[in-house]
Amino acid sequence: MAEKLFTKAEKDQIVAAIKAAELETSGEIQVHLENHCKGEVLDRAADVFAMLKMHKTKLRNGVLFYLAVEDHKFAILGDGGINNVVPDNFWESIKEAMIKHFKKEQFAEGLITGIRMSGEALKEHFPYDGDTDENELSDEISFG
């Protein structure tokens, strides 16, 4: 189910949104989909964050969008570097914007909205430095 949530064109649009966001920041954005979430969604997102080695970025500025498709659960998890500089309600405001799309079954558009919003904050706090920045993590959607 998770791998069939998006059409090829939608997957391409999501990856393009990640690449566009990362062009302006040293931050790293990843999307991971699974069918089911075992346990609490934030705990599972933290497990996936570690599995994808997102905590290994130089500035600790990775952001994970985790979706458990069949369980209708999702979480956004930012690493310590970004959590130290964004407002307390930052992730919640992005989730609310995404939910508006999800309720209309516009899952790709919801994700793209969240990716863009995260990218803006990453750009503000972790601007791209062409001399030292490298793409530390894959931009492709991963599946569990």
Automatic annotation (TrEMBL):
Pfam families: TPM_phosphatase. Residues 3-118 form the TPM domain. This is TPM domain-containing protein. InterPro entries: TPM_dom.
